[in-house]
Amino acid sequence: MSQTTGARLFREAWIAGVRAHFPGEPKPGYVTPWEETPEWEREAAGAVYEQVRQFLDLSGGHAARLSREQKGRFVAVCWTAQMYKHFEDPKPAYVADWPDLPGWQRETDTDIFEAIEKHHV
Questions:
Q1: Inter-residue contact 45 to 10 (CB < 8 Å)
Q2: CA 26 – CA 28 distance, rounded (Å)
Q3: pLDDT digit string (tens) for 22-60?
Q4: Neighbour count for residue 27 (Cβ, 10 Å)
Q5: Are 115 and 14 in contact (CB under 8 A)?
Q6: What sign does the dihedral 118-51-15-107 (CA atoms) show?
Q7: Could you say which of 30, 71, 93, 115 would form a disulfide bridge with 26 (CB–CB 3.0 to 4.6 Å)?
Q8: Contacts of 48 (CB under 8 A, 6+ apart)
């Protein structure tokens, strides 16, 4: 799968997760379609997709045995690194640690890992 295709998969999994887990109506930016997603965000999505894919490869597929929380934490840490890459001084919410993320975001991050895992087989 190309990095662009992987980035789109990441974005689609994010949007699906937001729609499933966000309480109430999400902010428009949370569900912006791929075509309208800013370039920095597309690059970040592609990078995190690739990190999850490589993690699955390097574990010989055994990363699938991680708990849902461990999978979500991995995505969250990879995303945080991208925020520091793309922003000199990112908003605190962009780089919040796992326990400080809202529940809907933790669930969405986990769903992203599992979506990549499903398409990686």
A1: yes
A2: 6
A3: 999 999 999 999 999 999 999 999 999 999 999 999 999
A4: 9
A5: no
A6: positive
A7: 30
A8: 10, 75, 78, 79, 82, 112
